[in-house]
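Entry: Glycogen synthase
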Amino acid sequence: MTDNKKNAQPAKHVIHLSAECYPVAKVGGLGDVVGALPKYLQAAGLDTWVVIPWYNKPFVSQHNFDVVYRGVFYQGSRRLEVQVEKERDDVLGFKLYLIKIPELLDRDEPYGYADESEQFIAFQHGFLHWITETGIVPDVIHCHDHHTGLIPFLMYHGDKFTALRKVPTVATVHNGQYQGWMNWNQAILLPAFDTWKWGLLDWDRVINPLAALIKCCTLYTTVSEGYLYELMEQANGLERLFAMERAKSVGIVNGIDTAVWSPEQDAFLHEPYQITDVQPGKYKNKAALCDAYGLDARKPLLAYIGRFAGEKGADLLPEIIENILGDEGVELNIMILGSGDSRVQSAMAYLAEKYQGKLGVHVGYQEELSHRIYAAADFLIMPSRVEPCGLNQLYSMRYGTIPIVRKTGGLKDTVQDIDEPGGYGITFADATPADATAAIYRALELYNNKKRMQQLQKQLMKLDFSWDKSAAKYIEIYQQVTA
């Protein structure tokens, strides 16, 4: 760990760096976290900034931004013009800054481009160039995932950023499977650094931004306690590194923004509802959703919301659906919202036709529809192979929807099985169609016990997974690294 403590004053100014921030640009849980945690930190008294790349998104065109900086730097031999824009009215509850660089940071989506490495090098270099040129020295810089993984290394070992040497860095690992690997021939794109320190960038003979982040940051967090330990066993090649750096790590489960995810005041819902009328309220929303997708609202409704990706266990869904809907004795509707793996998408299209009237499928992602499904569903299934924290199960519980989850990562930390004292969800051990199917049969038995269902729904809606507790833990960490 680098000795970079600036003074004994408590942290007052924290800058978050991320590739995503809801509602500006969101692909997954990273965007939700970076759109919520800073708001709670700001409300607690910290001057909290969020810095992300500029995207051609509706939020940007619909809000007012002021240009606060223009400059030039070189990425290898390429001359780049950087522009920093600040959202004028702080409508998100914190200060939002966008870094715009023509042809690199001015695109429609966060990911999926062939020059992604160059994009995120430019984002990180542009950020450091801006704050160094303008004399901005925050108390803490908080980096999220590999997209910002080079920041601590460049701060502490870059030739041009000596003013930031004493600024502590906190890193959060949202998903250790993605690491931003780059060949060493791309090192020429980095700003000048102490080449004697090249080993801090290297892991398995490539530049690994996530590895560099963990090696160089002052302290790192994971998005649940369970995931902290799982990274030492399953981290796409970085297991040994996470074990070596264990002493400077903390697991903090994510929270949810209870103002955004609120059944009482959610404008996306067919009809908002409270804990006192959870069953009639959910039924009205179920009826509206089922009517839209040709399903039967009198039957229990099971939902899946998420990417069609192996780590989410989405490839298991076709067999799970066949197991359940192929059983003529089962009364059940299933609603699927997601996109990704083309094979899963094709299977869903086939199954939606085969089980018309029992299976609704929407390929893609719609924020409004996801809220409507959480409110309408009786159960939400998450057969994840890897789930660092998981937010969907937290959203579902907020809406009185019982989660059916595989016991891994944050799912294991946040969902207690109904067979345990005080339990409120359904869990299963292995990411297999058989285990998931058995869990769904347990859910159907529970559904037939109306009194127990209502009791569990109310219990779920009383659970506190807000950001208040988690934000307080982050504040403690900021004070620790600046002490």
